[in-house]
């Protein structure tokens, strides 16, 4: 019996020892994991700090260069230069009444000033100062001497295209994107890169590397995303022309939020080589690069400059279809469909008011307006858009977002303030049957933006009005269609928006980019005339 007791006691002791050893091993393992995580976190912070320091240095060097130039040219009238439209600016540059140097330094100074308030730039392209010295060799270009801002994910040699995620830092582009090469050939000077949200797929514009970009009309609101840095810089007057990219409204939404015009071309109309996505392989919902500017004429001029033989030779996958000026300048009356509500997300009062006002203007101008209603919206959103973009369950995207990324910037897929967005649908039929168009109004949501990436339709936005006190008062009675969390979130997001821009979106069938721009111009002109 004593032997049995001794055996049991020994077993108990062995068990306690094993438990202690197991606990110690777990503690050591946990400590190792913590140390590794700490080291990883430090490396992440170091990479972020290097990127921030690089941006600060470029901004400081640019500021010193501007000061030196202004000392040598005290009579420069920067205010007059900044007030010129792109078409006026290019004419005066061509004629010699303005010099590329005066224009460049005027916009560089304004950009630095705008950035201080809006945090819209990820860095100055210091190579632009060298390009300015040799710009005379491209005097025949359509954009001769024009400073152009570009979204951070558009490749510029020796600069990162991080898409707002840390893992993409310290991977500078080996060459310029096709778009940057074409811009340079046309005499433009890419001079600054602009901010975007973490991972691109976001209606906001903030990331753990470069921070939050805000709206030029209200610093408490977002500039929109994902081309939010471009929207803020152009809307704030720091750039006369910018290039963004759009996979779900990423040009149109920030353009609408910031009170400017933006255009998403037909997918494949202009080159995407060197325009970096957050992940590759997704072919259901296609992205397009496109211009952002203060007016539609600037968008058309940019498209005309990009659609040239140089781009077609650099990227043979692009159909060699030059810009059709005749279609863009057409004045033929249109048959236009319209809608106020798609049955998925109820528009705000300012949206309903704007759609009715613009509808009246179009009818007065001799266009025919016809009610329109989309089909199978719920199916479209869940089965085609969301499952199309995240066909792998977002696994590839999550690989890009390291633990430190998520820890530093936890607000993902949630816009801090979605102010207002309208859109017009524009659908031409075969001219031998009828000339029919569509236009409608919706808030910033998948149903009114990403649908046209799915369909590869060209689409653009034009500002038409601003939110009024009466709109805000009526918003108090907003309930939405489903009265659910998303309807409440929408109401909260668009509240306190008095004075903010309200835009419309124009859409055309694939490869009818010039028609889309023509319709945008028509809306823009009618609104301007009504204000007079």
TrEMBL record:
It catalyses: N-(5Z,8Z,11Z,14Z-eicosatetraenoyl)-L-serine + H2O = (5Z,8Z,11Z,14Z)-eicosatetraenoate + L-serine; (9Z)-octadecenoate + glycine = N-(9Z-octadecenoyl)glycine + H2O; N-(15Z-tetracosenoyl)-ethanolamine + H2O = (15Z)-tetracosenoate + ethanolamine; N-(9Z-octadecenoyl) ethanolamine + H2O = ethanolamine + (9Z)-octadecenoate. The chain crosses the membrane at residues 17-35. Residues 106-410 form the Amidase domain. One of its GO terms (molecular function) is amidase activity. Substrate binds at residues 200, 226, 247-250. GO terms for biological process: fatty acid catabolic process. The keyword rRNA-binding does not apply. The keyword S-adenosyl-L-methionine does not apply. Its EC number is 3.5.1.99. The active site is at residues 151, 226, 250. Keywords: Hydrolase, Lipid degradation, Lipid metabolism, Membrane, Phosphoprotein, Transmembrane, Transmembrane helix. It comes from the Eukaryota. Belongs to the amidase family. This is Fatty-acid amide hydrolase 1. It comes from Mastacembelus armatus (zig-zag eel). The lineage of its organism: Eukaryota, Metazoa, Chordata, Craniata, Vertebrata.
């Amino acid at each position: 019996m004593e032997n049995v007791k001794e055996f049991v006691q020994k077993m108990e002791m062995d068990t306690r020892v094993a438990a202690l050893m197991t606990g110690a091993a777990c503690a050591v393992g946990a400590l190792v994991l913590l140390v590794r995580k700490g080291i990883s976190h430090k490396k992440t912070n170091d990479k972020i700090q290097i990127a921030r320091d690089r941006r600060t240095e470029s901004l400081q060097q640019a500021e010193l260069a501007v000061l030196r130039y202004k000392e040598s040219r005290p009579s420069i009238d920067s205010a007059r230069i900044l007030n010129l439209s792109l078409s006026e600016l290019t004419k005066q540059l061509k004629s010699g009444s303005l010099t590329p140097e005066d224009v460049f330094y005027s916009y560089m100074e304004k950009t630095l000033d705008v950035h201080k308030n809006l945090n819209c730039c990820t860095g100055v392209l210091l190579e632009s100062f060298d390009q300015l010295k040799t710009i005379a060799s491209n005097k025949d270009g359509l954009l001769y001497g024009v400073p152009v801002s570009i979204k951070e994910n558009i490749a510029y040699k020796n600069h990162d295209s991080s898409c707002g995620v840390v893992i993409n830092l310290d991977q500078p582009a080996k060459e310029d994107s096709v778009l940057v090469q074409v811009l340079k050939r046309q005499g433009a000077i890419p001079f600054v890169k602009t901010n975007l949200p973490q991972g691109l797929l976001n209606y906001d514009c903030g990331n753990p590397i470069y921070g939050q970009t805000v709206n030029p009309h209200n610093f408490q609101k977002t500039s929109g995303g994902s081309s939010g840095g471009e929207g803020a810089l152009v809307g704030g007057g720091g750039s006369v022309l910018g290039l963004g990219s759009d996979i779900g409204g990423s040009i149109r939404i920030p353009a609408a939020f910031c009170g400017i015009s933006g255009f998403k071309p037909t997918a494949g109309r202009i080159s995407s080589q060197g325009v970096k996505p957050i992940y590759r392989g997704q072919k259901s919902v296609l992205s397009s690069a496109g211009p952002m500017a203060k007016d539609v004429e600037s968008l058309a001029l940019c498209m005309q400059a990009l659609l040239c033989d140089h781009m077609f030779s650099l990227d043979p996958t692009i159909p060699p279809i030059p810009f059709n000026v005749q279609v863009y300048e057409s004045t033929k009356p249109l048959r236009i469909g319209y809608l106020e509500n798609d049955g998925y997300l109820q528009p705000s009062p300012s949206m309903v008011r704007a759609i009715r006002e613009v509808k009246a203007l179009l009818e007065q101008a001799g266009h025919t307006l016809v009610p329109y209603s989309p089909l199978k919206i719920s199916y479209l959103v869940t089965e085609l858009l969301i499952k199309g973009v995240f066909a792998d369950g977002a696994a590839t995207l999550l690989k890009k977002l390291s633990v430190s990324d998520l820890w530093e910037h936890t607000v993902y897929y949630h816009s801090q303030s979605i102010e207002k967005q309208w859109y017009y649908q524009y659908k031409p039929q075969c001219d031998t049957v009828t000339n029919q168009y569509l236009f409608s109004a919706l808030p910033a949501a998948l149903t009114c933006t990403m649908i046209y990436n799915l369909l590869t339709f060209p689409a653009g936005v034009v500002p038409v009005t601003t939110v009024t006190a009466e709109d805000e008062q009526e918003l108090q009675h907003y309930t939405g269609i489903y009265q659910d969390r998303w309807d409440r979130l929408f109401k909260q997001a668009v509240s306190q928006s008095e004075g903010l821009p309200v835009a419309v979106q124009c859409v055309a069938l694939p490869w009818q980019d010039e028609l889309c721009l023509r319709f945008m111009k028509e809306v823009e002109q009618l609104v301007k005339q009504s204000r007079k």
